[in-house]
């Protein structure tokens, strides 16, 4: 009886644009976290490869792009750690809160510690903190809805709106500070943004449902010491490998890709062989595998906004506006503008169509193919001279990026919570983020190919591959849907 009452209460809570009131609180902390994250990332690649005279570190462009790709992969790879701590030790809500503190410290390190020392310290802290926050914020949003609540996808789309409000404002403001007074002031503004988000979240923590604090599979205290020893040993090994030159800036992205692939295979194996999950849950995990592959392919193209598209915008894009040159980082705010405009439309469409909306596999298929089409739109401008690509053309291309993103990304977050076995609730979300980690890291490797390959070949091949993958997923959409056991 209590479960029935609880579900009814969830359905009746419509205080935030027809969604549960607590969604507004998570919306806020994610908005400010994305402000700081994308604000910092908007100027990060430029900081790495700009010369010392221009305030940068003077790192080779291909190596710098690889570092950004490795960092992006590291952010999503660390969702495993955040999810594991949530599911075994602290619960999603507490990990979210502590992760926000770690992120703020990372941005402070980037702002006040000069040179490579500040870069390494800051990026490690931001990557670990962002990984913990991302997986658990998504899980907490999922806890606001009953499994059969038709508002679920719409709620995740509104949550995605909060992400992109922050993603829009961050590069605009940090880019202005970077061009006017220097990179470290831009990083400092990112720290201020995270502090605001942390403060806002602190005031509303008590309103969240108890399920957000639940530890689904508590680790026995007798095993805590053993895990602490393993964690300490891993940190020591990493430090030694860095100091001895085994891990370098140039091979870091390859290492991240390898670790992500190993973690993905291990994660699927652990979940599928777990005796606590039911046969239906196991089939749903199998259904997630082709979605994972499509997601990784999508993100390997999409995340090039922070590698190839940034370099392209610096070298090819005509950024002149009425006699004033727009900062490169502002290009990264174009996509969030479209997200802000279109996310509400997508949410309304999914809500109106309800059970008649396309299945998740079909959304993934179309999203992957549309992302490939976006890359083909670069072809008319590829290989041009400096300032040869009109700003309006880049805006149009990023509009197509946005449509692809809305078909796959918020839907991916939602399906991860719906397909998750009961004892792997947060860790299933982390598994989705592993696809983002893999795609992000691969985007750094692809940037090295971009530096040597003809642009028409680069954009044509990658766009074509994505379209073919989308078509293949569409062909197997029905068998995948059957494996999902009633989940659409």
Automatic annotation (TrEMBL):
One Pfam family this sequence matches: PTR2
Coiled coil: none
Location of the protein in the cell: Cell membrane; Membrane
Record's keyword terms, sorted: Cell membrane, Membrane, Transmembrane, Transmembrane helix, Transport
GO cellular component: plasma membrane
Membrane topology category: Multi-pass membrane protein
Keyword Disulfide bond among record annotations: no
Major location category of this protein: membrane
Record-annotated membrane-spanning stretches: 35-52, 64-86, 95-117, 158-177, 183-203, 224-247, 253-273, 285-302, 330-350, 362-385, 391-416, 428-451, 457-481
Listed PROSITE patterns: MFS (PS50850), PTR2_2 (PS01023)
GO MF annotations in UniProt: peptide transmembrane transporter activity
Similarity section: Belongs to the major facilitator superfamily. Proton-dependent oligopeptide transporter (POT/PTR) (TC 2.A.17) family.
Descriptive protein name: Peptide MFS transporter
Taxonomic classification: Bacteria, Bacillati, Actinomycetota, Actinomycetes, Micrococcales
């Amino acid at each position: 009886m209590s479960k029935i009452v609880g579900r009814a209460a969830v359905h009746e809570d419509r205080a935030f644009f027809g969604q549960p009131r607590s969604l507004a609180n998570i919306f806020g902390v994610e908005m400010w976290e994305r402000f700081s994250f994308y604000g910092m990332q908007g100027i990060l690649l430029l900081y790495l490869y700009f010369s010392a005279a221009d305030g940068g570190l003077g790192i080779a462009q291909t190596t710098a792009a690889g570092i950004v790709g490795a960092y992006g992969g590291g952010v999503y790879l660390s969702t495993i750690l955040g999810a594991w701590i949530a599911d075994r030790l602290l619960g999603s809500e507490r990990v979210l809160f502590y992760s926000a503190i770690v992120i703020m410290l990372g941005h402070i390190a980037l702002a006040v510690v000069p040179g490579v020392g500040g870069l390494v310290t800051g990026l490690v802290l931001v990557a670990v903190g962002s990984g913990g926050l991302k997986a658990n914020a998504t899980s907490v949003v999922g806890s606001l809805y009953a499994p059969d609540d038709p508002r679920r996808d719409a709620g995740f789309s509104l949550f995605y709106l909060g992400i992109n409000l922050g993603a829009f404002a961050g590069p605009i403001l940090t880019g202005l500070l970077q061009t006017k007074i220097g990179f470290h002031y831009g990083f400092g503004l990112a720290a201020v943004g995270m502090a605001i988000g942390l403060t806002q979240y602190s005031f509303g923590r008590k309103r969240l449902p108890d399920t957000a604090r639940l530890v689904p599979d508590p680790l026995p205290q007798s095993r805590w010491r053993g895990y602490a020893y393993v964690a300490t040993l891993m940190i020591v090994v990493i430090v030694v490998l860095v100091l001895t030159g085994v891990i370098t800036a140039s091979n870091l992205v390859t290492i991240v890709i390898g670790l992500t692939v190993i973690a993905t295979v291990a994660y699927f194996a652990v979940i599928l062989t777990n005796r606590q999950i039911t046969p239906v849950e196991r089939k749903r995990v199998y259904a997630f595998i082709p979605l994972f592959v499509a997601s990784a392919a999508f993100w390997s193209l999409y995340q090039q906004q922070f590698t190839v598209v940034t370099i392209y915008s610096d070298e090819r894009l005509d950024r002149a506006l009425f006699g004033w040159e727009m900062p490169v980082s502002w290009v990264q705010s174009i996509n969030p503008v479209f997200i802000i405009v279109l996310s509400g439309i997508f949410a309304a469409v999914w809500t109106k169509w309800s059970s008649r909306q396309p299945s998740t596999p079909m959304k993934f298929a179309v999203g992957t193919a549309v992302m490939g089409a976006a890359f083909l739109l670069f072809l008319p401008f590829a290989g041009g001279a400096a300032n040869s690509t009109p700003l309006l053309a880049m805006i149009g291309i990023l509009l197509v990026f946005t449509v692809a993103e809305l078909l796959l990304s918020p839907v991916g977050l939602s399906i991860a919570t719906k397909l998750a076995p009961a004892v792997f609730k947060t860790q299933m979300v982390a598994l989705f983020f592993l696809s983002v980690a893999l795609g992000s890291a691969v985007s750094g490797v692809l940037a090295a190919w971009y530096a040597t390959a003809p642009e028409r070949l680069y954009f044509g091949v990658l766009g074509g591959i994505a379209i073919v993958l989308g078509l293949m997923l569409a062909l197997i959409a029905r068998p995948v849907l059957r494996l999902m056991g009633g989940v659409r």
